[in-house]
Amino acid sequence: MRMEKNEILSTILNVNNTNYLVHNYHPYAAKFIPQLPRYLIKKFTNPYDTVMDPFCGSGTAIVEALLLSRNGIGIEINPIGALVSKVKTTPLNNEQTLTAMLFLKELEHVRNALLMNSQKNNHIQYIDKNELTLPDLTNTLNFPNKFHWFKKNVLNTILHIKYNIDTIEDKDVRDFLLVALSSIIVKISNQESETRYAAIDKKVRPADVFILFEDKVKDMIKRMKEFSSSISEEVYAKIYQQDSRFINFIPENFVDFIVTSPPYPNTYDYYLYHKLRMVVLGFDYKAVQEKEIGSRHRHSSKKENIETYLHSMKQSFRNFANILKPEHYFAIIVGDSIIRGVKYDGYEIIKDIAVSTGFEVVQHISYDLDDISRLFNKSFRIKGKKEHIIILKNAKEE
Ligand SMILES: C[S@@+](CC[C@H](N)C(=O)[O-])C[C@H]1O[C@@H](n2cnc3c(N)ncnc32)[C@H](O)[C@@H]1O
């Protein structure tokens, strides 16, 4: 089974909407454009097969697997990524979407306290006074420099919403609302952008927290209704917040196809971009930092060399070879990377990892990122680097 280079490049280039249905739920660095895993899943699997993405990030490939009536398994070390993936791939029934909608009504006491305040004061006065119109919950948050990263009254509003979400009984509805809250955190904190962890001054009022949250929940519900009615009841998805180097919870020869975009060495710090989200939602960001493969922190700050990346990826690939059925396929999308001035070809790195862990290389397509305008988010494109789609086959015998 082979990919056609022209077919795949035109699939990628002719994309005009990457945010349909649940794909727009949450920001995530280096998201797949959904059409790419969609193409690969269609090419390499049949309906009701099981597709795995072992570095699933925000769950794009698993959403596409469900939409194509395939089962999905996602593995992701980052708890924000894992939560977003779980929510995007868990259909909600009418009762659950209604519960989410009614939650906005329940929050009215938070809203009224904030709106009264906005009417009393103009915007700038409000920020300068930094007064609280709700009981102070900020002292419950154990995070150094919390007021460097958030305005006190904004953080207090966030924590009130979180506190109310935590009282909801249905876990799927609770997770759904937590993703809505998580999605707006960078915007309402002082963090400069989704991929830059530096504090800047932003003109955000506590009322904005509520308004953004409410809009987000309403939009997510609309999309969830459409998504839930688009997928077959016979397929399911399971997301694990786990380290792909240590998978022992999936049976041998269980999966029909693997598609993933692994972390590229020295390119991103996922744990850092989502650090404030983890703090608010109560996850341990230090544990994530330690387990994240390929982070800039690891390769730039701690100066680890390419060997540690190869070692971790080989550990992971051995697990994948075990879980994937014999002679079945594994598609990888990876870019080139640079560590302390040395350029590493993404294809050569994956080939090295793959052949030493029980895979054979079937095909690869490489393209210059400057020529492909839409493969990934703009921020992901760095001049002169290539990207590769690599197809491996599990070499083990039946
Ligand atoms: C390129 S991103 C995947 C993005 C995804 N394709 C999407 O559409 O959102 C790579 C992911 O690998 C995750 N990762 C890094 N180390 C990991 C590990 N040891 N186990 C599992 N996931 C890990 C990162 O947290 C990151 O989310």
Set down the secondary structure blueprint.
Elements: H1 5-13, H2 35-44, E1 50-53, H3 60-67, E2 71-75, H4 79-88, H5 94-106, H6 108-120, H7 123-129, H8 146-149, H9 152-165, H10 171-188, E3 191-193, E4 196-199, H11 206-230, E5 237-240, E6 255-260, H12 270-273, H13 275-281, H14 285-291, H15 296-301, H16 306-323, E7 324-335, E8 337-339, E9 342-344, H17 346-355, E10 359-368, E11 386-394
Parallel strand pairs: 1-2, 1-6, 2-5, 6-7
Antiparallel strand pairs: 3-4, 7-11, 8-9, 10-11
Helix pairs in contact: 2-3, 4-10, 5-10, 5-11, 9-10, 9-11, 10-11, 10-13
S-adenosylmethionine binds next to loops.
Protein described:
This protein is α/β, with parallel strands linked by helices. The protein folds into two domains: 5-91 and 236-394, Vaccinia Virus protein VP39 (Rossmann fold), CATH 3.40.50.150; 94-230, no CATH class. The chain has helices spanning 5-13, 35-44, 60-67, 79-88, 94-106, 108-120, 123-129, 146-149, 152-165, 171-188, 206-230, 270-273, 275-281, 285-291, 296-301, 306-323, 346-355; strands at residues 50-53, 71-75, 191-193, 196-199, 237-240, 255-260, 324-335, 337-339, 342-344, 359-368, 386-394. The strands form three sheets. Strands 5-2-1-6-7-11-10 form a seven-stranded mixed β-sheet, sandwiched between helices. The protein has a two-stranded antiparallel sheet with strand order 3-4. It has a two-stranded antiparallel ribbon with strand order 8-9. The protein is globular and about 65 Å long. The chain starts with a helix and ends with a strand. Residues 123-130 have low confidence and may be disordered. The structure holds S-adenosylmethionine (SAM). S-adenosylmethionine is lined by residues 28, 30-32, 55-58, 60, 75-78, 81, 243-245, 261-263, 270, 291-293.
